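Progress against Task 2.4 (sequence-to-structure conversion) is shown through the following example record, which the project officer requested during the mid-term review.
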Amino acid sequence: MKSTLCVVVFCSVLAAYYIYIPLPHTISEPWKLMMLDATFRGVQHLGNLAHSLGLSHHIKVLNFAVTFFGMLSPTSSEGVRVTDTVFDGVQVRVFEATRGSDSELKRSVVYIHGGGWSLGSARIQSYDYLCRKMAEDLNAVVVSVDYRLAPEVHFPEQYNDAYLGTKHFLLPEVLAKYSVDPNRVAVSGDSAGGNLAAAVSQQLALDSSVTNKPKLQSLIYPVLQALDFNTPSYQQNRDVPILYRPLMIKFWLEYLNGDPSFIHSLLVNNHTSLDLSQVATSREKVNWTLLLPSTLKKHYKPVVQATGTPKVIQEVPALLDVRAAPLIADEDVLKLLPQTYVLTCEHDVLRDDGIMYARRLEQAGIRVTHDHYEDGFHGCMIFGIWPTYFSVGIRTMHNYIKWLDQNL
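Structure tokens generated for the chain above:
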């Protein structure tokens, strides 16, 4: 009996040690977040083990855990008709509100899910719920793009899927088929999906063959650049779940098909050093000392290396490709973009990506709504349903849909 008790106590202490991490006191429901993070870290460790043993790619293990219990078939409800179809070779799930007459033109949102260009699906529970709710609350048609993922494909294939699927939907005959008002379409996405939504919006603005342009773009804690991994938010939140700084860099290198050994170089900004002339113009477009308010700069200092590692840019030129990093777009392109909503979270390494993009858009004359959550963390909006029910997730989802309702 005594030995059993000792084992139980030891295991409890070990579990508590693994689960507990110090978190900012302002973050939403910290103990619940610790449990979520411990689960996520545990799966990552299993994935790394499987990878090192040659059993499977670590991303595949992680994606299996993310999607295994949550993949849903296209199930319609009383107020929303759900179908899976293909737009120009790209898998999509369409959510059509059934309220009103068939002849009534509806608003529409093209939604691109997050997951580091490697995880998730339009068919998992969290995104099915979000898109279903948008369709019902907005009485709209929502197209959720199920783009291909790394490691099976790399940049620019994820972008190509998102662009081709969106462009196909904007064809006059397709909009007419779904009874969509061509003047009331938004492009949206979260995290890596926000990256793709921003890149797609830029290209749609430039593409003269697209006659129906989006009215809005809405970006949820988007990842928008890979040139500075030492912005104040990257420094402040490097150890805050669920998106740790090294993990974000791993996602970038997987997406751009870069050598994993480049992680350290990116961590210290060796890939954007002053001696690399080809980076100079792009570096200025992510200069947070000019783009962020003083309240966010705090005591943080820029990390700029005098000499760096030219091999990184040489082998991963997509780091400077605007389709991968929409924040480095020229102002002439930004001027063409529609009204924009940007949601950011205080406890997120990507906070400053979104804020800098909002600022650059404003400088280009674009009307921008910036919605910031002091208790928010990366990914919180999709954690607004069971079993990961966070109050900040409920609030972000509600306010995001409310903004769409008021502006679309």
